[in-house]
Amino acid sequence: MIRVLVTDDSRVMRQIVIRTLRQAGYDWDVREASDGAEALAAIQADEPDVVLSDWNMPNMTGIELLRNLRAAGYQTPFGFVTSEGSPEMRSTAQEAGALFLIAKPFTAEGFREVIDPVLA
Amino acid sequence: MTATVEYDQIHAIAQEVFAAMVDGDLGLLLPWDGDLPDIVDALVAWVDLHGEWSGRAVLVTGSDTAHDLARVLLGLDDGDAVSRADLVDAFGEIANVVGGNLKSLLPTPGTLGLPQVGDVLPPLAGAARVQHLPLSWRGRLLVVDVWVTLPTATSEGTS
């Protein structure tokens, strides 16, 4: 079973992401983190198969989390789920090593369109 | 410099946000028809945008409506209790997604602040309201406003 770490400072949004993963057919083992710093510690303690992360968070943003992970040698597959989907942010995410960026609001179909090719 | 933010663009964003996150249907957030009632026990959520285009996306609705929105987002049943923390989180997240999508419309890069929620909207220095959308969600008033910080050299003109 794929193990995912869902990172978002909004508990409500974490629930929505987890619900949407299930609606999309991904029966994954889910852990949660409430900001980038908490996620970094969780990944260092027990690396998941994939990280889904918000961008804009207190303490440590999603892009800082990704850069810190890569700087520390972690190649954990990483995707953003964020309210901002501008070309500029997509480019920044890709350059930092993200596999995808899902813009909020999203649907289960949108999750599948983006995540299925990565799993293949 | 300010870019024009059209009424229809904001309405489309709000509709899309509510369709994806709340209702599963695009047609449930409509322009308010008729006189505007006073919002009783208002809850306000906002997120600020910073950059060449600076401003604020604001949502206002009644506390009862905000509670119902939180229940939907949390997958709770009608009448289930909603904590203040979950209420603030849920309503703030809707404002956050609206603000993020508004930011994506803008021609210049910038940053998005973290969502805030309160009983009243604090003033944003030098800003003017450029869009005001009284909407009906399930027959209840929900207002989406967009404020833009005006160039300091002028005090008028909001385009």
From TrEMBL, chain B:
UniProt keyword terms in alphabetical order: Chemotaxis
Keyword Mitochondrion in record: no
Single Gene Ontology BP annotation: chemotaxis
Domain Chemotaxis phosphatase CheX-like: 44-117
Keyword Lipid biosynthesis: no
Classification via SUPFAM superfamilies: CheC-like
A Pfam family: CheX
Identification of the protein by name: Chemotaxis protein CheX
Lineage of origin: Bacteria, Bacillati, Actinomycetota, Actinomycetes, Micrococcales
